[in-house]
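Q: Structure for this?
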Amino acid sequence: MANNTITAPKGFLAAGLHCGVKKSGKSDLALLACPAGAKAAAVFTTNKVVSAAVQVCKKHVKSASISAVVVNSGNANTCTGKRGLANAVKMCAETAKRIEIDPHNVLIASTGIIGEQLPIKKITSGILKAAAKLSASSKAGLDFAKAIMTTDTRPKQAVRRLEISGAKVTIAGAVKGAGMIAPNMATTLCFITTDVAITKPLLAKALKSAIGNSLNRLTVDGHQSTNDTAIILASGLAGNAERIGIVSQCPRYKRFANALAEVCDDLARQMALDAEGATRMFKVVVKGAATKADAAKACRAIADYPLVKCAVNGGDPNWGRIICAVGSAGVKLNPNKLACKLGPITVFKNGTPRKFDKKKASKVVSQTEHTITVDLGVGMASDFCYGCDLSKGYITINADYHT
Amino acid sequence: MANNTITAPKGFLAAGLHCGVKKSGKSDLALLACPAGAKAAAVFTTNKVVSAAVQVCKKHVKSASISAVVVNSGNANTCTGKRGLANAVKMCAETAKRIEIDPHNVLIASTGIIGEQLPIKKITSGILKAAAKLSASSKAGLDFAKAIMTTDTRPKQAVRRLEISGAKVTIAGAVKGAGMIAPNMATTLCFITTDVAITKPLLAKALKSAIGNSLNRLTVDGHQSTNDTAIILASGLAGNAERIGIVSQCPRYKRFANALAEVCDDLARQMALDAEGATRMFKVVVKGAATKADAAKACRAIADYPLVKCAVNGGDPNWGRIICAVGSAGVKLNPNKLACKLGPITVFKNGTPRKFDKKKASKVVSQTEHTITVDLGVGMASDFCYGCDLSKGYITINADYHT
């Protein structure tokens, strides 16, 4: 069977195991290595309070070559002061020591509870074990994807294969959800590997664009986490002409960028469907807006509105809640031209309700994925985002079990 | 027993009954009358999509004298186009006819499902019956408070009595919750009666200030409804010197304004505790902010964050979620001076977690009301707001039952 994990591209090894951060006994330490060294790019949360891991990673990603990524789950290492920062530095140093590289060539990410110090001895022991287990097998890739999970119910991975200049290129990604997710520059933890040969600036450009149209369009509960990080490593071992796309107009670059965008879109949809308590997802399209920013704001207001999310959970075509969210979003609109569609069904047009088959509409809303379309009736701009329903499962996960 | 309903101030009659809008058979039509005529002031939703009732009420409230307020629950008369507007006008005309006044002297409010036309015949029949039932009894006041309810589990009323220049003045209010609530200019439907003699501009000033520090500080699910209306009627029959406070610095005006603020604060707390599915409420205080606007923004980000609301529901002192919300609120803050308290317990200070008794903190969070305090560490400005927990009950109300 084909390897569809992050070890699929040439040059990558991975490992994942339980080192003792999570009381549940589930995997909580993940290691990714590229012994030959990779070009790297990353995007980070714009939350003003950031994890020690993010602070360290932002520095290290500037290195010309990255050889490893170390990730722990179960503890965010955020709001942990100087001791937390020292622990993040130590995680990189320990990883560097085991793989015999410089600590600046190690990237790092953490996810989990905020405000508690890392059990650093457990983690350094874990790094030692993980380094010894590093493998290019698909099992190792899956272990990595499992070890980055928190409240996710399943690992989320995606892969795309394409040819560039006759060389076979692979792009693979693993992502973790599932709460504290909202669009802005980066979302949650996302690790992408590829064997394409590409310049560092173009790799960064392709990542930013792909995340911007995928993970950044997803909102689960309206707030960006303190730890959001998306990292891409390119080993350059695919054998394509060393520098695809010196310029971004190059068709070879575009093919790579499109494939990367597909990987990220795939991951974003998997995240929406595995969001905390989610039973279904939806896409919001807002058109007829005065500006792109207005369209984005309206999309987000709809997708984040608890009453809309509950209606989707109940398969209820209660479109009035959608219009209420749009009206209070602070965007320009014409109440007399306002329109709304649930899937293909027009329920509201020119500010007047349309008669529609409620059973049919309920079926649309009850699908695994449907599209809500709103026309603001004032301009030509549009935008979209992804959301998911709000269920009792979300409350169970976030209220019933204590930290 | 003292009358503590909106018929307590001199000069007011009320009625409430079931006219057939709600399938449940619960009361859905409320009428308030002031035969001698009252000075009136109101604040309305700033949602860009507004009910036909709001459109009509905004015009009528400019009248020098108001003699009646008609309210229906179970149908918002919003997104209903020209027919909806004609129905709102008809509701006022029908009320005016029954009380023998001019339609412009009638105020109107609606609440309920958005996007469906009013069953206007049922409502006009209801108005006829309600007009015949008008009474100054406390039962009639309670009937009114019940008839404005939607998903509220109990009527919410408040009363304050004070002396102004030797005259006994009464202020009474009734409010309905319980979803689609967020602070901005006005919140939900709120009706206040008083017998004070006061000028129209000062009445408006006192209402705006009282609502601004009470109902406008409450957020249940982050979006302002399309129908929010707060109305105050002053009959002037208390017998105080006809014009208390020609100027707002007048101490008699201040005493009235403070008592009105108390009524509104009382109603806001009742609303928080009777919000959809709510089991407890909390107050958020943000201080050390660069500006008042930043403080308000941070308050709202915390109170609206589903993860914070779930933590409160679970009695979980998971303060990291509070800091995450603040960090992503887009306000100026100093991560190294950031601090957080749950009730009296400091859990985070100078960007570093404090050791604290988790059982004690859990007890604080499990109270009917507790205060979350955050210091942004950059300035002197502060603000506050009220929020409530997010429970499975909210999902039951908003997802399990179809519209």
